[in-house]
Structure formats: C-alpha cells, structure tokens
Write a structure and sequence with these properties.
- The complex is a heterotrimer of chains A (about 170), B (about 525) and C (about 325).
- With about 170 residues, chain A is an alpha/beta fold.
- Chain A contains seven helices and five strands; from the N terminus they run αβαββαβαβααα.
- Chain A has a five-stranded parallel sheet with strand order 2-1-3-4-5.
- In chain A, strand 4, helix 4 and strand 5 form a beta-alpha-beta unit.
- Chain B is an alpha+beta fold and about 525 residues long.
- Chain B folds into two domains: about 140 residues, NADH:ubiquinone oxidoreductase Nqo5 subunit (Beta Polymerase, domain 2), CATH 3.30.460.80; about 325 residues, Cytochrome-c3 Hydrogenase, chain B, CATH 1.10.645.
- Chain B has 17 helices and 15 strands.
- In chain B, the strands form five sheets. A five-stranded mixed sheet of chain B has the order 1-2-5-4-3. A three-stranded antiparallel sheet of chain B has the order 8-9-10, with no helix packed on it. A three-stranded antiparallel sheet of chain B has the order 13-14-15.
- In chain B, helix 1 packs across helix 2.
- The model of chain C has no long low-confidence stretch (mean pLDDT about 85).
- Classes of the chains: A alpha/beta (about 170), B alpha+beta (about 525), C mainly alpha (about 325).
- Chains in contact: A-B, A-C, B-C.
- At the A-B interface, helix 2, helix 3 and helix 7 of A face helix 4 and helix 8 of B.
Amino acid sequence: MTDTKTWARIKSPWVLHFNSGACNGCDIEIVALLTPKYDVERFGVKLEPSPRHADVLLVTGCVTQQCAERLKRIYDQMPQPKFVVAIGACACSGGVFEGNYNVLGGVDKVIPVTAYIPGCPPRPEAILDGVVKLLNALNPPKQKKSSKQVEAPKEETKTIIEEAKPIVKQ
Amino acid sequence: MSNNKIDILNVVESKLGSKVQIQPGHLSTGSIIANNGLHREVLKAMIEADEKTGIIAISGLDLGENLGVYYHFRTSNALVTIKTEVPKTNPIIQTIIDLHPGAAFHELEVTDLLGVIFEGNKPEGHFVLSEYWPQGVYPLRKDVKANEIKLSPPQETNKPAEDPRQVKIIIGPQHPALLEPEKFSVTVDGETVTKVEPRIGYVHRGIEKASESRTYLQDVYLVERICGICNSIHAAAFVEAVEKIIKVDIPPRAKYLRIVALELNRLHSHLLTLGHAGLEIGYETLFQYFWRDREPIMDLIELTSGNRVYSSLMAVGGVRRDIRAEDIPKIKSVLKTLRGQLPFYRQIYTDEPTLRLRMKDVGVLSRKDALALSVVGPVARGSGVDIDVRKDEPYEAYAEIPFKEIVYKDGDTWSRMNVRMDEVEESINIIEYVVDHLPSGPIRLNLPRSVPAGEAVNRVEAPRGELFYYVKANGTDKPDRVKVRTPTFANLPSFLKTAIGESIADVPANFVSLDPCFSCTDR
Amino acid sequence: MIDYLLLIFRILVFPGFTFILLLTLFCDWIERKIEARIQNRVGPMVAGPAGILQPLADFIKLLTKEDIEPREAKKLVFRYAPLAAFAIMMFAFCFIPIDGGSVLSFGSTVGGFNGDLIIILAFATIANFLLFLAGWASCNPYGTIGSARVLTQFLGYDIPLFLLALTPAFIAGSLQIANIASAQATTFLPFIFLAPWAFVMFVITMQAELEKDPFDVPHSESELVGGLETEYTGAKLAFLHLTRDVQIVFGSALVVELFLGGPYGPVFFGPSWIWYSLWFVLKVIGVVLISEYITTVVARFRIDQVLSGNWRILLPASLISLILTVALVTWVYPLLV
C-alpha cells in the first residue's frame, strides 16, 4: 500500500503558485511551463486555484512584509503532505533586494522550504528539473528505514512579524 | 516644433508674469518654480491652453530643510515641471485633484513615502507601505535608515460594505486571475459593481530608496528588476536620464542596438498580454497558441543578449553586446514566421463570436475620461487619445525609423487588445528596418563613474505606456534621487472607473485589458 | 440462485460499478489528451503507458491527503454530500442498457420500466442539487457564489433538456430507455437521422448541464477561485471530481441511447453482449470527443449570457423542435416508410 500511495503522489503533483513580491520574471517562466514548448502536464502537474487542492506550493519573490502573513496563511491552508519550492534568487535569499526596508528576504524566513531553484529567473527547464528532482526524492531509497524520509517536514517556524510584536509592547 | 514648445511657457508667463520663475530648457521643455499655492494657478493656465495637459508624475525629494514637490506635466508637445518646496516642519500643500483627477494616486504616494500632506486628499491608512509600517516614519527622507525600522501591529481591517444589501468581495492577494498579489475590494449590488477599492503595496520593495545607496552601475541591474516583463525599457530609461545629466550623445550603432532590445521587449510583452487575456475569458486554447508563438521571441532575446528574460544590455554610454552579422538572418526568419501567424489571430478577434461577446463594449473608457485621468499607452490609444512617446518626443533613433501610431476609437476591451495586436506588427516592421540599416561604429563610450551634479527627466514608451524617470545626481558615484513613474500606476485609476456599473463577471476581462503590472506599480 | 449471483456480478463488476468507473477514468484521460492535442501539447505521459493511469493516480493521491474541515462548515452536508452525489449518479447509470440490457436486468428481460427516462433525469438533477448543497455547506464566499451559479445554470437548462429528451421518446412511442434504444435497432435508423435538429440542441444543452465550455461559468477560475469545490480536500474532493466525470459519461451515454441507437450495432461472431458493449463504449467515446472539441475551441460565456441564452433561445427552440417532431412523425414519416 505504501508503494501505491507514493506512486500516486509522485505521478500527480498539483501545484499552487504564489507571488510574494516578485518582479514577474519567475512567474512568467512558471506560467510558460504550461505552454506547448515545455508542457508540464506530461508529468501530471496541474495548476490549481485553491490552496486546499494543491500539494506543492511554488513561491516566487523576495517576501515583502505584507505578503509574509498571507504566505503563512496559505501554507497553513494546504493539506498534508505538502512541499514548498522556492523559485528564483529572490525567493532563496532575497536576491537583489536584500536589505531593503520592506523586504524580509527569502521564503525560508516564513515557511519551511523543501527545494530551492536558483536563477534570475531560472529557465523553465531548470524549474522543471527542480520539480522532477523533488518528486523523485519522494521515492523511498532501497533501505528499510526509509519511510520517515518521505513525509513532509512538520516543524513550525515563527514568522518575523510574530517576533516583531513583542518589541512594540515594551 | 520650436514655436509650439515655447507656447506653453509663454502662456504661463503671460498669465502669471513675475509671480513665478521660468527656466526654459531645464528638465526637457522647461521648469517653473511656483511656491505658496501658485502651482494651482499655473496648472489652471496650462489646462485652459491645452486640453491634452496631463500629469506624468509627482516627484517628492528631501532637500535638507525643505521637501521638494515637483509636478511633471505633459502637454501636446512639451514636458513642463512645476517645482514647489515646503518646509519639513510644516509640509502642507494644496491638492490639485479638483483640477485634474488623475493626480490622486501620485499625491497619496508622496504622502506615504515622504510625509507631505495634501490638503483635500487625505489617505486612509497607508497607500504603498504595508499595514505594519509605523506611523510617522517616512522612508524616502534621508535620515531614515532601512535596517532600523521597528514594525507595529497592523492597523487596517477589512471593513464590510456600508450598504447592508451590498456584498463586498475581496479579490486577491492570492487569486488565479492575478499573477501578482494585490487586493481589490469590489462592492457588488447583485451582480453589478458599485465600487472598487484597491490596496496596492504588496510588491513594494523599496527600490527608489535602495537606488540611493548603490552606484550607477549597480543601479542599472536594480532598476531592471523592477519588472521582469519590460526590463530593458526600465534600464534604457535610467541610462538615458543619466546620459542627459552627463550631456553626452551615444554612438549611432548603440542607439540602433538599443531599439532592437526595446522592440523585442515590446513584442514579447504584447504576446504575453494577448495570451493572458484568453486565459481570463476562459479561452485556454488562444492562450496556448499565443504563448507558443512567443517562445521564438524569447529565443531571439537569448540570441541577442545571452539570457531569456534579463538581457542586461544597457549601460551608461551605450550597450554591452553587439549583434553578429550571422545572427541577422535568424532574426529575420523568426519575425517573418510571426508575421505570418498574425492574420489567423486577427481573424479570431473579428470572427469568433464567444470572444466578441466577452470583449466588445466591456470596460468602456471615454476620451474625456482618458484625458482627465491622464492614462497612457494602449489604454489611451484604444480610447482615441494619440499619445506615444516614440512619436511625441523621439528618443534613441526613433525619429529616423518609419512606423505608424495605432489609435482605435471605441475605448472598450476589444479595441485595447486590437491596439496591441497591431503594435506587434509595427514592432516587427521596426526591428526589420533596424537590422537592415545598422550603422557601423563603436557600441559603447567609456564614461567616468561619478556623474556631475544635475538633474534630468526622461520618458520612454514601455509596452504598457509612458515610463518616466527623474534622476538627480550630486557629483558622487551614487544618485541622490531616482523617481520612477510606471505606466500601470497611471492607468490604475481608469480601471476603478470603468469597472463601475458593469457586471462582476466582466471584471477579469476588463482588468486584463488594462495590462496591469503590479511589480511596476509598487516598485 | 445463479440468477441472483449473476445479478450481483452485473451490479458490482460488469456492466456495473467497476466497468463504469473504469470507463469514467478512461474518458477523463481521453478528454485531457484531446484538449492537449488541440492546444499543440502532449498531455499526461508519465503515469502508465501514454499517461493512461493519470486519472487513477489523481484519484488515489486525493484519497491519501489530509482531510480538513473548516470550523464554520455545516458538518453533515459537508461530509456526506459528495459521496451521496456520486452514489446517486451511479445508481442513475444502472438503468441505461450497456450490453444489450441494463445493469439491473434480471434474467432475459431488457431491464428498466416504463418511465425510467424521467426517473434517471430526475436523479441527475438531484445529484446536481447535492453538489450545490455541498458548495453551500462549505461556508466560503467563493463556494457560495459558485454553488449559486451551479444551481441557476442546471435548473434553467433542465427544462430544455427534458423537452428535447422527449423527442426520441415520442418517436419510439415509449418512455423506457431500453425500448427507445431497441426501437432504433429494429428499424436500423438511429434517431439522429430522423430528428437531427433535436440531436444538435441536445448536445448543446448537455454541454450546459455538464458545465463545460462555453458554459463553464461555475468552474471559471479567474472569477471564482475553486467554485463550489474551494474548501474541499482529500477524499471528498476526489468524490466531487469523480461525480463530475461520471456526469460527463452519463450525459454522453444518454445521447448515445436516445439518438445513436444505444448499444445496438452489427454483431459479427460470438456472443452478442461483447459486441453490444463494444459499440456502446465506442459511441460514448465518440460523443465525448465531440463534446471535448466544442469545449476546447470556444471561450466562456458570462453568467448573464448563459442564462439569456437558455430562456430566450434554447427554450423556445426546444418547444418548436418538439412540435415539429410530433408533426413530422405523425403525418410525414408514415408516408415515407
């Protein structure tokens, strides 16, 4: 039964795309994945509208302060097992905008990230490669004590917004 | 041409005489220094003289003891700046939105970022900054440091509609119709929209402040990333403004190569919008076809510059890469294939009944409203207003290249999409002309790193409309102020007007015909 | 005793539950491939040979997801409406002759009873209504608007659907689906040739009932996010999707039975039930192809255009079609035969 479950999860990853303050470069490359030249539906990937339907969250953009709260909420709305892919240099670490006054810098300051795809913007082939690698990593390795590695990380990280609130109360 | 230019400054001088100080030739056509509320008189005189007077931007700057508020206006053939100053201790100035409604958003932004209070235009909460931003801290002032801001608890809540029979629907920030996060609170009465309230600022990355702490060389890469779709155009606008301050003329081959990059950008952006419109009205097949035809253009961008999206071709003094002679046949063959596909798409737009049902007579913007709100780009040209920076104030080598300006009269979504489709053909013509007539010579001048003190304005025609840059240099290798006014920022008020009175089901189609790019809007 | 065992086999395996489920998943795959091909793409390729196991992978994956129930949702309806809708659709399918007789045919009878055409159309309406309740119970603004649109659309289009379904019933002289299908077999003339206008309008009305483009409004992502399915996750979402897919196959099967001669066709050798099942599957796939082609090449109407199209165009047209068919059958066709 575990094999069928894992097989189904690998063959049918539904993605949700969220832009947390990006310049649109990475977003256009993600939408280009659906077009005839790259055709990501071959892998069973469907672009879903609602967070409740999706397995993989594709996040682009250096996370601005306003988007951080919404990003956390969307992540919480997704059902387990879920994975987060940070696409683009801005989502990995803040990119060119690191240090600006409205920018948190990197998705992993808000939610746990499973895969990082660098680039500015990464080519659609690079994004596809990253998604396929993520899916293949779900396959348990041939040893016995492998089932733990398949599950998604469940730890919660505090957001910077939540950490900021005590500063004001003093 | 020169007779018409002095006209508007003459008009102002004849009406107001010695109350204002006129400097012809400074900052494009000329600038007028008008303090103590006289800016309203100057604006009244300009509007009476020329109906096509429209606001381009309001630049706010920190001048030490005072705050500068510069109003940049365009007339039929001139770019005039009205400079005023208010003291930091009492930064109050009168609004101009009763004379010119299109200035509303610009004033709100200056209030938010610099702290200037416009009497008669008070914002509710922040406009561009986030709801966690503390009150009383203005990021563009020189004494505010980026890493010393302490956040405060949010002060905005979603208020329900005032009339209890009406329902408030919130579109965004995560919504499949929007590629970018923005929030629109749409109040509906049944199925008819009665009010649209936008909340922008979700993509605000503080680029204007960041550009002050980076050198001019680094700033080229920074302003390029304001928008991933029209990136070369931002870079070109910035380097042209800096070249105007240095007062240098770049070699002709560099001008032609810049035009190739700019027009390729326009091509891929229009094809993107035309395809995205299909997605909004449920026509996924059209979306797939347009984006299939867009891929060879991305290959061309990669051929000429080395990267699919961010070409980074522009530099202060010219361009960084040349086109090889053996690449030119490839460019021409790709463009020829694209030109052959256009009749198919034109036929869909004229013949397909479901598309006409969704796009005809939807989101109508009248010519009068287009002029009052000072919209730019295909939104204006679809409503009969013929403004195009490439024709009004030719930059680079556009004065030497023959092309048509596309204007449609109806002002609905269908017209705006047709403007873009025809502009695709015009861009193909321009690129073909340019690669056939490339002059020889150097492609880049070697300029020193520091820029002498001065200021300049620059306008460029981006795919979405007129893009405006104001750059102030102070003699070091870092700019003092870079002000960017993007076309979507100017066009957004028109959406708030055209959506009212129509069905909520028309909102997506109407919205995409505006071609919004929120990363440009928020910077 | 053997008859009862055979009946249970017929209900559970063939041509009952398992067969219909496999046919549904197969038609889902065909739809995705056709849509991809028209759009210059390839479609699912990785799950199984040529991607044929993709719908099954989607279904199993959804079953293994975490089940989230919003605090505000109405628990009873939220939990059981998707499953109930699926069950009712499957039950409605049991009256359609598939291999010469319907699933519930007992012994050598052809199955069904007089009036079962009306009953299964009523079941389809009840299943749609349960879907509306499912969206309503999730207490999400998008779910509410989406389900309200589902209600408006299917209630409106039910009326022309019934009227147009009566046309072949009138020609065959019976309200029992099995009799309508076999009437076309005995005369070797499918009703599509006798009343082609009714066939065209029935296919269009079926597009609207099944909520496919251009009548795709309840599922329009750009306006409604997820429509009535927005809050559903896991197994409930799997059954909502499956209900919709079974509805598509059900609608195509109705078109086949009423206009295309049902499962009856030439039998070449061997037992007739194999050939009847084969003809049934081929005809259903043919109708699914036509329907998916229409879906892919047009845009989506607005909700007010959908409704005005129904009340102003389709309803009068279906009335005229009924009157015309009655006149033709009573006076003209007996002269030709």
